[in-house]
Specification:
Strand order of the largest sheet: 5-4-3-6-7-8
Number of strands: 8
Low-confidence stretches: none
Mean pLDDT: 93
Helix content: 40-55%
Number of helices: 7
Order of helices and strands: HEEHEHEEEHEHEHH
Structural class: alpha/beta
Strand content: 15-25%
Oligomer: single chain
Length: 202
């Protein structure tokens, strides 16, 4: 896919993906780090990414088959907001913890029982924060069967989502990105093998 090749190169050349030794929010060690929160600083590339995500949603779910877009703060919410504007769909989001003031809500936005939503996130690893969001949405009576992500790190999220009956659709994954970067001679074989090893450990 032409977009993915261009996107992978863009991520690497702008230090949005870095290779080395990193500790993730979960405390896990990683041979690479992706920070898609930098993408909106490049409006043309950001728009292209959202457009490709829009096409994926149309292809996999269809715009008539859901009523609202849901996300979790913060990275995914930026992506979901831009997508909601493009496809003219309502946006809701699930807080990591309920507000301690006002209405003390954990879900922001207008919801109704039986409402069909799709979940949107930027990068997915094990999927814990999104799974918690989905759980809260389902407990509030919303229906969700599809989740869309920009990059899948291939570290267990697919199975975890499948176990609760939600399909993950991705624009790309870390293996596809590193293979492209290797073919383009931007990274060496050692980096590629480290990424493969990390995926295989999960």
């Amino acid at each position: 896919m032409e977009f993915v090749k261009e996107f992978a190169t863009f991520l690497y050349k702008n230090d949005i993906i870095k290779f080395g030794n990193f500790t993730l929010a979960s405390g896990k060690d990683s041979s690479y780090y992706i920070d898609l929160r930098l993408v909106p600083s490049f409006p043309h590339e950001f728009r292209k990414m959202i457009k490709n995500l829009q096409n994926l949603v149309i292809e996999k779910t269809g715009l008539d088959n859901f009523e609202s877009i849901a996300s979790v703060p913060t990275g995914g919410l930026i992506v979901a907001s831009a997508l909601a504007i493009e496809i003219i769909k309502p946006l809701i989001y699930v807080r990591n913890k309920p507000k301690e003031h006002g209405t003390a809500k954990s879900i922001e936005g207008k919801t109704s029982a039986g409402m069909k939503v799709v979940m949107v996130d930027d990068v997915i690893t094990t999927g814990t924060s999104v799974l918690n969001g989905i759980k809260q949405l389902k407990e509030s009576g919303l229906s969700i069967s599809d989740a869309f992500v920009i990059i899948n790190r291939l570290e267990g999220a697919d199975k975890a989502f499948s176990d609760i009956g939600v399909r993950i659709h991705q624009l790309t994954d870390i293996l596809e990105i590193t293979n492209i970067l290797f073919q383009e001679k931007l990274i060496d074989e050692e980096i590629l093998e480290k990424v493969k090893e990390q995926i295989n450990q999960n």
